[in-house]
Amino acid sequence: MRFPFDIPDTAEFDVVGFGANAVDHLIRVPEYPRFDSKVEFVQYAKDAGGEVATTLVGLQRLGMRTAYAGRFGDDAEGKFGLASLIDEGVDTTYTETVAGASTQIAFVIIDEKTGERTIIWHRDKKLAYTTAAAPVESAGRCRVLHITPHDTEACIRLAIRAKETGAVVSIDIDQVFQGLDRLLPLVDVLTTSSEFPRAFIGMTDHQAALRTIQERFGCGVVGATMGRAGSLVLCEGVVIETHAFEVPGRCVDTTGAGDAFRTGFLYGMLTGESPRESARLANAVAALSCGSLGARAGLPIQERLMAFLKNC
User: Fold this and answer.
1) Rounded CA gap, 2 and 296, in Å?
2) Plot region of 66 (φ>0 → left; ψ -120 to 50 → alpha; else → beta)
3) Which residues pair with 98 in a beta bridge?
4) Are 99 and 74 in contact (CB under 8 A)?
5) Which residues neighbour 205 within 8 Å (Cβ) at sequence distance 6 or greater?
6) 3-class secondary structure, 190
7) Kind and range of the H or E run holding 72
């Protein structure tokens, strides 16, 4: 089985990402706090995150050429988040710093026993893109455009430009946004959280939901991350069920596991792997990511990923 679309052989960037960046404040606790209680935390850390920015960092570590298009505030968190991309080698030509805006932040509460997390976040409205302000030029310089639909109208404009140049459009989505019915027909690779299909179309059967979404919007590949159960990917009428890998050592933190999944999946797709092998790579990267605190610390370089798969 092959992917049901052509991927350009060459472009200036393998992946351009447009969407969320954030700074995460990570708090590990012995157990999730009860209402109206006090609990002493086990560990605190500040790390860069955000769905698209994290996936780009993961791809960069695996040898891909990436660029980020997005906005930071002019605060300390913005400087921290932007520097995190530059330090990893992600091209930041299309980033902007918005005067008077606060960079998106998240407080992440992590249960020490399971590694499961709860995220409390805020995005300043000043960071939003209008259609006219969308960085359209970036979408014409890549093999894959990877987006989150927080600014849906801007995403539509970028996706149209990407399709004009033959690029594949990939979307990371876990919430229902206004305008998705117009954006999704432009998407080739749709990967969602396990909760999204029910919220979007009201179906609890994941396989049936993926088929319905594909039939309704025409996305070439539709997938869902299923946590400890692995993943489901629908391609060419076949549902690929891929098991989750055991996290080396133990699961420390599931923050960014979905972003890591998309890292591995896009990496497989861009390096000529089949959808089934791409899903396997995706679950492997997600497992490695969960072994460290924060969204990015556990993202592997290519050698570590290959060694992990060899020993599984």
Assistant:
1) 30
2) beta
3) 73
4) yes
5) none
6) strand
7) strand 66-73
- State the Cα–Cα distance between residues 266 and 9, nearest whole angstrom: 14
Mean pLDDT by 10 residues, the chain (312 residues): 94 97 97 92 96 98 98 98 98 98 97 94 96 97 96 97 98 92 97 92 93 96 95 96 95 96 98 98 98 97 97 84
Contact 100, 72 (CB under 8 A): no
Residue 182 CA to residue 47 CA, distance in Å, equals: 34
Provide the pairing of β-strand 22-29 with 105-111: parallel
Alpha carbons 186 and 188: distance in angstroms, whole number: 7
Distance of alpha carbon 138 from alpha carbon 67, whole angstroms? 8
For 256, list phi and psi in degrees, rounded to 5. Answer: 80, 5
CB-count burial class (<10 Å; 0-12, 13-18, 19+) for 5: middle
Nearest C-alpha neighbor of 77 from the set 24, 119, 129: 24
Please state, in angstroms and as integers, the Cα–Cα distance from residue 26 to each residue in 44, 45, 174, following that order.
6, 5, 21
* E strand segments, 174-256: 189-192, 221-225, 231-235, 238-242
d(CA 283, CA 245): 7
Q: 111: which strand partners?
A: 29
CA pair distance 24, 120, nearest whole angstrom: 10
Backbone angles phi, psi at 75, to 5 degrees: -100, 180
Please name the amino acid found at residue 45.
A
CA–CA separation, 222 and 161 (whole Å): 22
Domains and CATH numbers, the chain: 13-21+50-99+129-310 (3.40.1190.20)
Asked if 2 and 274 count as a contact pair (C-beta separation under 8 A), the reply is yes
Structure tokens at 122: 């805020």
Q: What is the pTM of this model?
A: 0.96
